[in-house]
TrEMBL record:
InterPro entries: Biofilm_reg_signaling (IPR052155), EAL_dom (IPR001633), EAL_sf (IPR035919), GGDEF_dom (IPR000160), Nucleotide_cyclase (IPR029787), Rev_trsase/Diguanyl_cyclase (IPR043128)
Keywords assigned by UniProt, alphabetized: Membrane, Transmembrane, Transmembrane helix
SUPFAM superfamilies: EAL domain-like (SSF141868), Nucleotide cyclase (SSF55073)
Domain (GGDEF) ranges: 218-350
Transmembrane segments: 16-34, 40-57, 64-81, 87-104, 111-133, 145-164
Name the record gives this protein: Bifunctional diguanylate cyclase/phosphodiesterase
Organism name: Marinomonas arctica
Highest rank taxon of the organism: Bacteria
Length: 619
């Protein structure tokens, strides 16, 4: 196991105290069995050990205590050697241990001093014996003995120093590796708990904080914040500006938190806050403060801009006890806030759950509606305003569900668009309309059919292939099929759209621009796009009294202008939403070509459409 420098020093201190304790006990035990002189030496050593104990506890630096300890042991051994069998005493082997210990734990100066002292002491002891100053019986010593003992001490000192040097180097390498490992672990923990861009908590850390708070707090608020107009910053200035913007907003939000609360970057331009709940009035004030803070100007280099946000809120434990579940509910509230009005906060309502569940069930039912023959077509006739005879018909999808009963097109068509079902629905309408049109042509009714296209059908690039395949399968001539598209569709990928429309036009299929006047009403695409018909939106048609208020007069002038424009460009006009006789007469007066609406005929089943055709023939 590796330790920090402080931990390592503390561990070494404990080991050193153990070593001193062993020497202290050993000196006391040895003094009970030693002779008088050796007893004095050992007891003096024990007293010295007590002084070293005091030194360890009174001074933070262990090096001085270690040096004193080694000098004490060296002097003790030297005295015992002198008292015993001189240089031939077995105690002399302790010198090697002392040198190794000094090399490991003392400074270079202390090590050299000890080595020199031991060498001089042994040399002088041998020289005293050699010169006859040692009492009898004196050991036999030659001049070579002095050289040999110093050579051995030099080799021992040299070896001890380099062994200790390698050992210290190894310890340093291990310590460095330990530090690098700790740094890596710290970085991993930081990455695991913090968002690298903003420094805020990430989802994992936010969830852990929520779980901790939920154990002690009675109520919490989970606040989901989504920036409303963040993408234009990335598009206009680049992602670098977007990143700086997120960092600025993260600092602003973090500064508004109370102790214990947390702000988390949930992803992209979304933030989640876990707040302590006090009361509803205080919460509303805080949400307004969040919105005001986010809406403050942001200055990055020479550019100044503002962003706004939509906020959704859920409460613990009223709406749920799980962090992820509360985030999901707050996200739903945020999405509704964004749809209703931006720069606003909205609290989650439990009744929404039933709405979402019903919506999901309806989506699943819609997926199998075609196979279960629940979808069918209704037809709304178009009338020539000069003769009031049927001169066309628009095919409209209808859904009679076994689970939900009659479902309005205003409900299921947006569902189909949101969930990728609009292609299948569009193909069903196109196939059935061509099949039915072929059938009434065979009955002698020379009436073309109009079918609405979705943006998904047009953008897929497969429209000509699908249309030609359906016409071939039904046997319907292309001149009897009219495809209706809205103005907004024409503003997408113009080159791809123009190519498909041109391919279909070449085969005799005509196009109508639906809801004209509600989109871009751009004369450029009118000249570029080979349309045959303009369908005037019902919002302008329903109030067409030139003698009424200013609003009606403006509508009258607008519709009349569209009719004049269409005739100038060689286009026919169809007015939608005719619901009274006055509107019908006004349209006839301004030379509009055709009309459709409830006053003339509601959308009817194929059987009722045949009845209308028969009634017209009988008149």
């Amino acid at each position: 196991m590796l330790y920090k420098p402080a931990e390592l020093a503390q561990r070494q201190r404990k080991h050193f105290i153990k070593v001193i304790s062993v020497f202290f006990v050993g000196s006391l035990v040895g003094s009970t069995f030693a002779g008088p002189m050796a007893q004095i030496i050992l007891l003096c050593s024990a007293v010295g050990m007590c002084a070293i104990f005091w030194l360890i506890h009174s001074r933070p630096n262990n090096k001085l205590a270690v040096a004193c300890f080694l000098w004490l042991i060296t002097l003790q051994i030297s005295a015992l050697i002198t008292n015993n069998n001189a240089i031939y005493s077995p105690i002399v082997m302790c010198y090697a241990i002392i040198l190794v210990y000094a090399a490991l734990f003392c400074s270079k100066l202390t090590f050299l001093c000890l080595a020199v002292f031991i060498s001089l002491y042994c040399s002088l002891l041998l020289l005293a014996i050699r010169l006859g100053y040692w009492p009898n019986p004196a050991p036999k010593v030659s001049n070579v003995s002095i050289v040999v003992i110093n050579l051995c001490l030099f080799i021992a000192s040299f070896s001890a120093w380099f062994i200790a040097k390698d050992f210290r180097s190894l310890l340093y390498d291990l310590w460095s590796e330990n530090q690098a490992s700790r740094k890596s672990q710290k970085e991993v923990r930081r990455i695991a708990t913090l968002d690298p861009l903003t420094g805020l908590s990430n989802r994992t850390n936010a969830e852990q904080t929520f779980n901790t708070l939920a154990k002690t707090e009675k109520q919490l608020s989970v606040v989901f914040i989504d920036l409303d107009n963040f993408k234009p910053i990335n598009d206009a200035y680049g992602h670098h500006y977007g990143d700086i913007t997120l960092q600025i907003l993260a600092d602003r939000l973090n500064a508004l938190l109370k102790p214990g609360e947390i702000c988390c970057r949930f992803g992209g331009d979304e933030f989640v806050l876990v707040l302590l709940y006090s009361n509803s009035a205080d919460c509303r004030q805080r949400y307004e403060l969040f919105l005001e803070t986010i809406a403050q100007e942001i200055q990055i280099e020479l550019h100044t801009f503002k962003v706004s946000a939509s906020i959704g809120v859920s409460h613990f434990p009223a709406h749920g006890s799980n962090f992820n579940e509360l985030c999901r509910l707050a996200d739903q509230a945020m999405y509704r806030s964004k749809l209703s009005r931006k720069n606003a906060a909205l609290l989650y309502q439990p009744q929404w759950q039933d709405e979402h569940r019903k919506k999901l069930e309806m989506i699943q039912s819609l997926r199998s509606a075609i196979d279960r023959n629940e979808l069918f077509l209704a037809y709304q006739p178009k009338y020539d305003l000069a003769s009031l005879a049927i001169n066309g018909v628009e095919a409209l999808a209808r859904w009679q569900s076994k689970e939900f009963g009659w479902v309005s097109p205003a409900v299921f068509i947006p569902l189909a668009e949101e969930n990728g079902l609009i292609d299948d629905l569009g193909l069903f309408v196109l196939k059935q309309a061509c099949k039915d049109c072929k059938h009434w042509l065979e009955k002698g009714y020379d009436i073309p059919v109009s079918v609405n296209l979705s943006a998904a059908q047009l953008s897929s690039g497969m429209l000509p292939e699908h249309v030609f395949g359906i016409l071939a399968a039904s046997g319907l001539s292309p001149q009897y099929l009219e495809l209706e598209i809205t103005e907004s569709m024409l503003m997408q990928d113009q080159q791809a759209i123009d190519s498909q429309i041109e391919t279909l036009n070449e085969k005799g299929i005509s196009f109508a621009i639906d809801d004209f006047g509600t989109g871009y009403s751009n004369l450029h695409y009118l000249s570029r796009f080979k349309a045959a018909t303009l369908k005037i939106d019902q919002s302008f048609v329903r109030q067409l009294d030139e003698s009424a208020d200013n609003y009606s007069l403006k509508n009258y002038s607008l519709v009349k202008g569209i009719v004049v424009l269409a005739k100038t460009l060689g286009l026919t006009t169809v007015a939608e939403g005719v619901e009274d006789k006055n509107t019908l007469n006004t349209l006839r007066a301004i030379n509009c070509d055709s009309a459709q609406g409830y006053f003339l005929s509601k959308p009817v089943t194929l059987e009722d459409f045949y009845v209308a055709l028969q009634n017209q023939d009988s008149e």
